[in-house]
Write a structure and sequence with these properties.
The complex is a heterodimer of chains A (230) and B (252). Chain A has seven helices and nine strands. Chain A is an alpha/beta fold and 230 residues long. In chain A, α6 packs across α7. The relative contact order of chain A is 0.19. In chain B, α2 crosses α5, α3 packs across α5 and α8 crosses α9. Classes of the chains: A alpha/beta (230), B mainly alpha (252).
Chain lengths: 230, 252
């Protein structure tokens, strides 16, 4: 199971600027991977192209066995008329019902369950939104700044829990945070400006997991690699 | 809310009356052209019960027409939100038809349906229907991407859920439009009665016009204003209750 983009060219209609000129990259099978790069380089555009929201590009995106690709971002909201509990009950497939309680506990959402979305803090909103996506059936989940506004300790707990609970799933984590990308991700796709060749560089991250000792020197080396690549 | 509306109406009405009296006495116009305040008072005492019943008759038709137009605008708005050709056709047709003055079409309605209740109801509904429709189509056609994305991508979206999301997100806009169109419903009913009906305050005004009795018209206008204000207050209160039910305190 892998996702492959070959020679992608894309520009938004009505503009002369190419977002991608000849972008090629691979997302190897299951794991927690990252899409990293400076603002405006096309991370969200690429994510939307992968999940079919944006079309009109040339080149090829081969999703192979990844049939169910979901994309979530940090600006999403839940409908305002129901509580978080009601929403999750209504929108969780039967196959995932057994992990609802565990996710709610791990993501620290117990206190939010009877509240409506607008009553939550930004961090709680993002955690709630991510939870409902994790409860869906998917092969690849693209998380566009999905853990923005979440404190570092909780963020680490969440990422480690996701890696532990869904080892057979593929995640593509879009973030601007070099430390968390270097620390938690398996493969790091560094996206660069369209005038750089190649436009995407693939690096290996530390892929830190729960109960694992972190090699700080290796982490620093990966962080340097990412910074240099971008 | 009620006090404010009624006060506002009283101020405007009596200002208008004062202007008429200034014109009358500065130009020395006869009572036949502009009646004296005493004559207006006597007419109001004499015709108040009759005109009150007539204005209630008009108001009931206006409310029915308003409800009918809200129902129609919701139905057509829901169909008009579709991206397929039916939705596109309905949107274009709505914009074109609303440009047509209903008063010009009204004679056809009276010829076909006669001068009874159905014609008044239909004209009232049509006059407030098009502004409602344009707003409803606008609301129902505008995606709320940050909410709908989840349901679209997980294939859980239904037409009912889509409508519910868009209506919920624009509830204050919808309420404002519905309250605003209430005046149009009243106007539509009076226009219909004025053209050809055989009941209602518009019909009474037409008779007063034939008699050149401005005092009767002023009494009728007073009652129309009071009843319209009361209806608007009622709608605003219903809207307020709906919003209060849905509104939730923000967290953080």
């Amino acid at each position: 199971m892998q996702l492959e983009c070959k020679d992608l060219k894309f520009q938004y209609p009505g503009t002369n600027i190419h977002v991608f000129k000849a972008l090629s990259l691979q997302i190897p099978g299951p794991g927690f991977h990252a899409l990293f790069g400076p603002s405006g380089v096309g991370k969200t555009t690429l994510a939307k192209m992968i999940c079919g929201i944006i079309n009109g590009y040339t080149g090829e995106i081969a999703t192979n066995e990844m049939n169910r690709i979901l994309y979530t971002h940090n600006l999403e909201r839940l409908p305002g008329w129901s509580s978080v509990r009601q929403h999750l009950e209504l929108n969780t497939p039967d196959s995932s019902k057994h992990i609802v309680a565990e996710l709610i506990h791990s993501f620290g959402l117990q206190v939010c369950m009877e509240s409506r979305f607008a009553q939550l803090s930004l961090g709680q909103q993002n955690r709630t939104n991510l939870t409902r996506y994790l409860l869906q059936d998917f092969d690849l989940l693209i998380m566009d700044e999905s853990l923005a506004n979440v404190d570092e300790v909780t963020k680490e707990k969440i990422i480690l829990k996701m890696k532990d609970m869904f080892p057979e799933r593929c995640f593509l984590y879009i973030s601007h945070n070099v430390v968390e990308v270097a620390k938690f991700c398996d493969q790091i796709l560094v996206l660069r400006s369209h005038h750089k060749v190649p436009q995407a560089v693939n690096l290996s991250g530390q892929n830190h997991k729960d109960n694992q000792v972190l090699d700080k020197k290796a982490l620093e080396h990966t962080m340097l690699e990412i910074v240099n690549a971008s | 809310m009620l006090h404010r509306r009624i006060y506002q109406f009283f101020i405007i009405y009596f200002l208008g009356l004062a202007v008429l009296m200034v014109i009358k006495y500065s130009l020395s116009l006869s009572d036949y052209v502009i009646p004296s305040p005493v004559e207006v008072w006597l007419t109001s005492r004499q015709f108040f019960p009759v005109y009150f019943v007539a204005v209630l008759n008009t108001l009931s038709v206006a409310i029915l027409g308003h409800i009918l137009s809200i129902f129609l605008a919701t139905t057509v708005g829901i169909i008009g939100r579709l991206t397929i050709w039916v939705g596109s056709f309905i949107r274009v047709a709505a914009y074109n038809i609303q440009a047509y003055p209903i008063v010009a079409v009204a004679p056809i309605i009276f010829i076909l349906l006669g001068d009874g209740l159905s014609s008044r109801l239909l004209i009232a509904a049509m006059i407030c229907y098009f502004p409602l429709l344009l707003s409803f189509i606008g609301v129902f056609s505008e995606p709320v991407a940050e909410i709908e994305h989840f349901f679209e991508s997980t294939l859980k979206m239904t037409w009912w859920l889509q409508v519910k999301i868009r209506a919920f997100e624009n509830i204050s806009k919808l309420i404002t439009v519905i309250v605003g169109s209430a005046t149009l419903a009243m106007v539509g009913t009076i226009v219909a009665e004025f053209i050809a009906a055989d009941a209602g305050i518009g019909y009474s005004i037409r008779i007063a016009l034939f008699q050149s009795d401005l005092a009767k018209i002023l009494v009728a206008l007073f009652l129309i204003g009071v009843c319209t204000s009361l209806y608007l207050v009622l709608l605003e209160w219903i809207g307020h209750m709906i919003q209060k039910r849905w509104e939730i305190p923000k967290g953080g």
